[in-house]
Every structure is written in structure tokens, then in C-alpha cells.
Amino acid sequence: MTIDHPILLSLFYILIFPGFVFLSVYGLFLQWLDRKLGAVMQNRVGPPWYQPLADLIKLLAKEVIIPDACETAMFRTLPYFAMAAVMTAVLLLPVWTDALYSFQGDLVVVIYLLTIPTVTFFLAGWSSTSPYATIGSMRVLTQLFAYEVPLMLSLIGPAILAGTWNITELAGFFTTHKLYMPAQLPAFFVALMALQGKLERVPFDIPHAKNEIVGGQFTEYSGRLLAFFYLAVDMEMVVGAALVNAVFLGGTLGAAGLPGLAVFLSKTLAIVFLLTLLRVLMARVRIDQMVRFCWQVLAPISMAQILLDIFLKFRLG
Amino acid sequence: MSKITIPLGPQHPALKEPVNFSLVLEGEQITGSTVNLGYNHRGIEKAAEDRTFLQDIYLIERVCGICSHSHTTCYVTCVEEIAKAEVPERAKAIRTLVAELERVHSHLLWLGIAGYEMGFETLFMYTWRDREQVLDCLELVSGNRVHYAINTIGGVRRDITPEQKTAILEKISVLEERTGYYIKLATEDATVLARTQNVGKLPHAVALERGAVGPTARASDVKRDVRKDEPYLIYDKLDFKLITHNTNDVFGRVVVRALELVESYKMIRQVLNYLPEGPIAVKVPAKIGPGEAVNRYEAPRGEDFHYVKANGTDKPERVKVRAPTMANYPSVSYMLDGGYLADVPMVIAAIDPCMSCTDRAMVYDKRSDKVRVYDWNDLRKYGIEHYKKRGIDFSKK
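YS: structure for the whole thing
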């Protein structure tokens, strides 16, 4: 059976694949993989495969408690904004074949769509008005200014080399010029570290460091609303890995359909493995140390990468 | 940026036991802090007066879940001093052995907590896995993992067999190897260094002025250790170093505890090889005194202090416990001021606090901002009135 009605097809893309259903299922799977791998690395047993789903269902079934001070429309709707932004971003990324919608400059659009969840985290904490949430949201914003620039700079390098701002063309460039891939290693590392900050994972889980500020920006959230925030973070992990895959690793490597999906899945799994490794290897740093690290270490590395890419481009002709 | 006050505790993920730190924040920086104690008063000192000397060992053991042997040893030596009992050398050696095993278990536990507080879960999982080795040793010696109940008045309750000796030596070798790895990790890992160096500064002079004890003081280069200053049990026969460090920060406290682990392994070997033949306990009469005794003991967290007063009956007239955490609280508020919010859990954890051991009855009056200690009559009056309001009158009975 094929779906040929344009509206139905769009709905299928948005709601089923690669939209909501695929993103949540794969996101929950990646969350499990991350927890299980982390557990094995830490010499523990780890959760069973259905644990993230069970957590989600349980949270969905729980009562939503909204403190009087937070009773605003913004507080209630923010989780959906976070999810919507992430779901929009995936439509611009290659998943089983080339991206569904692609145009010059969609790289910038994806970066900005991925910034929206972070902004909703900030607003969530800010509208909660409790001290823990306020401090958490201030940390979210400080952190955003720290990792966002290295992340963008690291993505610009490959874009300059490929001479395009189009993610699909970028992936196509690395599919045909595979030898340039290893040359992007420093920027790849920077992107992984910045992604760790975007997803708020150790060493950059500062905004919700539980020993310091309890639940951070989500302290006042509960039940369904919290569940959707967590789901949005899981989805963001898929989209983040997909973005890194598309920009640095050549997307689906020219394959389409099921082989393309297999290539996508295996490469995103590898990226998640690296993210887990980073998480397990380090302690949480302080916010000032994080800002210093991002600006003094990550940003210069990505600048050097850009220079290298300009040099390579002129040699390439 | 305006100032905000955030409460850390009494219920907070960074704290294992209830205590309250009220922090005034300017952004991420702390400009003022208050320590509020007394959430977990259990009336142990009072309860001790209603039980016999022997029953009190059971009670005193439960002052702390980690340094249980420290408290009983300190208490039991007080009682033995009043009763003028000569404890056999073998019993002293076994007490020392359990004491050092306990120090190993406490310091490993602390290392895990420190890892957890700095968000380094892997370190937490690893140290707690390895800590099982020493818990196995303790179980082998005493039959229990936490409350060893090895002390009795006049000696110890269980002997050490040659098989136990070999088993302990084996496990200690494993632990020694793992500790080498942790020392390397704590002194070389970039993120650990970033979170511990120059955090929670406690200069030498301040440590002396505020009466810091244990590893907290020793990391500020204060050469203070009861085992050296006033050797008890068989510590005068053992060869060990007094570990100090001069960085005055959390890093120093990590290093001091890690190196003390190595010293403890050394001591455990020495004790096991020394172990003189002979009885493990002497008989002590049930009625003791009159007389009083004060004793100091180097618990894993610092100097533990017990006072016992006997009046010739089988029950003590007064038992006073000063847990090491109490002596370290004044330093905490100094260390917190001017630091970052992110460092608060590290700074608090670095004294290895044990709130429940420390709490004694105190009432804080919010309106007049005064603290006062309730004595027995006050408490009795308060209790009677409390129940009168609920329709039960205890004063008639």
C-alpha cells in the first residue's frame, strides 16, 4: 500500500516516520542503551529494555501538580514546544534516505530548531519561580552561551569544505569524498562535547545537578508535563546524533530505504556509545569551568578546523 | 543580581541525613550561610542512663552506622578505666584490627560519596564495589557487616582464627591494589582535580581556631591524631605515618583519606602478625564505680570523645558523647562562605559528616533568635503538656 495523498503523506511523516512515533521509540531505545552501556561500564547490571517506556507510562499516569505560583499557560505548554521543535528538526535530516525537505541553509535552521528546547527549559525554570528552578534556568542559559558557539563553529568547518549550507548536499559530499572524513575528527570531537552540553549530560549536567539544586529547571514539574520534557530530551538525543551523523559521517552514505535506515541506525548507535563513554569517564564540572572550557578549548579547536578546511578546499580547487 | 536564599536540607539529594544549611546566594556565589542542626535527636545519652553498662554497648554501637566500633571502644575503655579492669593484650589487638578495618570501610565509603557529590558516578560505583571486600572481612571477624558488636566490657566477644587471618590478608592485598588505582585517579583525573582543588579552603590557622578534627584538620596541615598524640589500644606498638597535607582544600582531604587507607592496610598486616596468645576477655563485675572517666579515640571522621560517670550501681549516671562531626561543623560555615553553590555538596561531604551521630537536643526560638538546650525537667514538662493537649494526662500516673 502506498500513501499518495500529499496531506496524508505529510501527516505520516510528521506523526509516524520519521516523526513522532519513530522518534519516541528510538529515543526511548537510545535512553535504555545509554543507561545499560553506562551500567555495564560502571560494573552494574542496568535496567531491562522496557525500563524507559515503563518510566514514561508511569509518569504519564501520575497526577500533574502545578504550584499556584506557576499557574500560567506558558508553564503548561512549554513541554509541547520542546517536542515540536525537535520533531520539526528531524524532517530536515537524512534518516532512511536524503532529507525529506532540503534547501540551502537548512543546516542553520536545524541548529536553531535544536536551540528551542533549551530555551523552553530556561523558560520552564523561570516560570516555576522556585529558587532551585530559577538557579537551574540561569545555568541553562549560561550553558547555552557556552556550548552553542563551539557547536556552530564545528559544523561550519565541514560546510565550508563542502561549499554548501544544505545538509543533504553536505552528506552527499562526504559520501563521495570519504577521505575528508578523518580530517574532520577535531570538529567531530567538539560537536560531541557540545552535544553533551545540549543534552545536559555529565560532565555538563550542571542545570539539573541533583546534589546542588535538586531537579534544576524541572523541579516544579510533575506527571505528564515532566514526561513530555523527558521525552523531548530523548528525542533531542536522536536528532543530535542524526545531525552529527549527517554533517560528519556522510548521512546514509547514499543508501536508501531499509539499507539506508540500517546505516543510519548503526551510526547513531555508535555516536550514542561515544556519548555514553564521555558521560561515564568524567565528573561534573562547575558552570564557570564549563564556560571556560568551551571558550578556551572547544572554540579554538573548531576555529583551527575551519582554517584546515579552508586550506583543504583551496587545495581541492 | 538580587540575593536569594536557598535551603539545603533537611531533605535534599546531597545530604544523606537531615541537617539544614541556609545559603544566601548572589548568582552562583555564596555570601552567607547558616548551619541548623537538631533534626535527628534520638535521646541516646538519656536512654543510656536507664540501661546497664553492658546493655549500653548495644545502644552506643548505634550512635553511628559507620563508626560503630569507634563509639563502643571509646565507651568501653571508659567503663574499664572506672572498673580498673586489665584488658588482655589479644583483646586489644583484635579491637585495633576491627578499628582499622572500620577505617578502611569508612574511607572507601567516603571516597564513593565524594565521587557522587561531584557527579562522578563511576567512581562511586567502583569504590562501593571494592568496599565489599572489607565488609566481608568484618563479617568474617564479627558476623556482622555494619554493627560488629565485637566489644564487651573487659575484652572482645570473638577470637580470630588462623583461617580468618589468611582470608583477611588476601582481601587486604586486593584492596591495596585498588586503592593505588584510586589514588592515581584522584590525583590525576582532570575533572576530579577541577572539582576538588582550591575548593573549601580551610587555612591552617582557621582549622586550629575552629577546632577541626580528623582528616579535615590534617588536610590543613594540623598534625593531630589521637593514635599518635595519646596512643590507646596497641597503637604505640604499630609503625604508621601521620598523614597530613598542606593544600587546605577538598583535594587535600581526598589525598589524606586515600593515603590513610594505605597506612591502615599496613597496620592491619602488623596487627595480624603481632596477635599475642592469651584470653580475649576478663570478667568485670556488673556494678561499677563510683568514678568517672574521659576518653579520646581517633574515629575515621576525627576525634571521638566519651565521658562516663558511674555511681556504684550497674547503670551509668551520665554518658556524654561528642561525635567528630560536631567538632567540624564550625569549619563548614567558614569553608562555604565565598564559594560557589556547585561546591557546597563537595565541601559538606569533605568533612565526612554524620549528622545523626552528632545531634543533641537543642531548641531554636525563631522569634527571639536564640538557641537553648532543654534539660530533663524541661523535656518532661514539654512531653506532659504535649500529650495533655491530645487528651492524655501522664502527670497523674
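YS: worth flagging: Chain A touches chain B through 30 residues (CB under 8 Å).
IM: good catch. Also Chain A has a mean pLDDT of 87.
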